[in-house]
Design brief:
globular; two-stranded antiparallel sheet; Glycosyltransferase; mainly alpha; 50% helix; 3-stranded antiparallel beta sheet; 372 residues; 14 helices
Length: 372
């Protein structure tokens, strides 16, 4: 990441936005530790663990003890909701939950089910990877790692769940959905890197920790190599493939999601370096189509063909050293997110916080660490 140069007014703005959003994100958390997608005082709300993981990752940027206690409560909530054996026969996975809230307190939890009656999780690979990323960052920042040590068997089950769909060096989204997604595998790359770090920190007491850390590193490297070779298509990455690495979805830069946005994920999770030719090529193409002089859209001004915020764009811009676009987006975010109403969800608040921290810290490895 090139050196970040900020005007003092922008630095002050980023610091204030970061603190404001950290306070709001923390206020969303319920007393049982769950972090729902929206803040609610009474009624029903969804808790998607994948979204909640990114929320907790952002909360690690806080200096407040109360927020850190909240992260610990979320870790315990997540550990306590892991499946012993899910509908695919896997352990270490986690479903989405509907939470019933009365006067700010969760009084009931229910697993979300698909219309056909099957319990719901979007993936087994990404849900596991993002939680492992949270655990690894927590282990390196927290004053103690007791909660991770106490849940060592569950952490290893989560690693197993992430590994369960590995086929030809990439993971399927779920055992019952054999599609290898670019976005998921960028996250599993980060997940295996996180598992390596966990075996070097919180789980280093295990007799075979060194061997397992090396296994995690080698698996991450295989994913990285496969994404960068088998999924590269001259000027973009394939969005979804089968085990033979044949494209399952057509690609077009004019399709915002999943085609264009997926191209940001190799940069976001460290699969490719911001200085690499591939990173420059896909980022420049993304900005040409969504922020170019003659483009219909302008992502820094929050004019995108989606109702969602996609705050990850600001994080990627920061990683690429594109400070002006990143700051512009965050200023638009601040104007639009005052009420924090849908379609703003917890994860996008978290990504906005991480973008602020990344710009203020001048380090591309501060939040989403990769194997070294």
């Amino acid at each position: 990441m090139p050196s970040v140069i900020l005007f003092e007014s922008d630095r002050a703005f980023l610091k204030e936005l970061k603190q404001t959003e950290l306070a709001y994100l923390s206020s969303m958390q319920l007393q049982n530790g769950a972090i729902p997608m929206n803040r609610i005082s009474s009624g029903q709300v969804l808790c998607n663990p994948y979204f909640a993981d990114f929320s907790a990752l952002a909360m690690l940027e806080s200096q407040e003890n109360a927020v850190w206690n909240g992260i610990k409560k979320y870790l315990q909530w997540h550990f306590s909701h892991l499946n012993f054996s899910d509908y695919n026969g896997l352990c270490g996975t986690i479903y989405d939950y509907t939470l019933t809230v009365e006067e700010g307190r969760c009084v009931h939890e229910a697993v979300v089910h698909r219309p056909e009656g099957i319990p719901c999780y979007d993936s087994t690979d990404s849900y596991a990877a993002t939680f492992l990323l949270l655990c690894a960052n927590y282990a390196e920042k927290a004053p103690d790692d007791e909660i991770l040590v106490a849940n060592t068997p569950k952490i290893e089950e989560i690693i197993g769940a992430m590994s369960a769909t590995m086929d030809q060096n990439l993971t399927y989204a779920r055992p019952d959905y054999p599609v290898q997604y670019l976005m998921d595998n960028c996250e599993t790359f980060a997940g295996f890197c996180a598992a390596k770090r966990l075996y070097e920190t919180a789980l280093s007491f295990l007799p075979d920790a060194g061997k397992k850390a090396e296994e995690m590193k080698q698996t991450a490297e295989k994913i990285q190599k496969t994404v960068c070779s088998a999924l590269w298509r001259e000027d973009h990455f394939s969005v979804a493939v089968n085990a033979q690495k044949e494209d399952l979805l057509p690609f077009s830069w004019t399709e915002f999601y999943p085609s264009a946005t997926a191209q940001l994920f190799p940069i976001l999770f460290g699969v490719i370096s911001p200085d690499s030719d591939k990173a420059k090529k896909v980022y420049e193409a993304f900005c040409y189509h969504y922020a170019g002089k003659d483009a219909e859209w302008n992502w820094p001004m929050h004019k995108i063909p989606s109702k969602s915020y996609w705050s990850v764009m600001a994080v990627v811009a920061a990683k690429m050293g594109d400070v002006s676009r990143a700051v512009c987006y965050l200023k638009q975010y601040a104007l639009r997110s005052v009420s924090h109403q849908k379609p703003l969800y917890n994860a996008d608040i978290g990504w906005a916080i991480l973008a602020c921290s990344l710009l203020l810290s001048d380090s591309s490895k501060t939040h989403l660490l990769v194997c070294e």
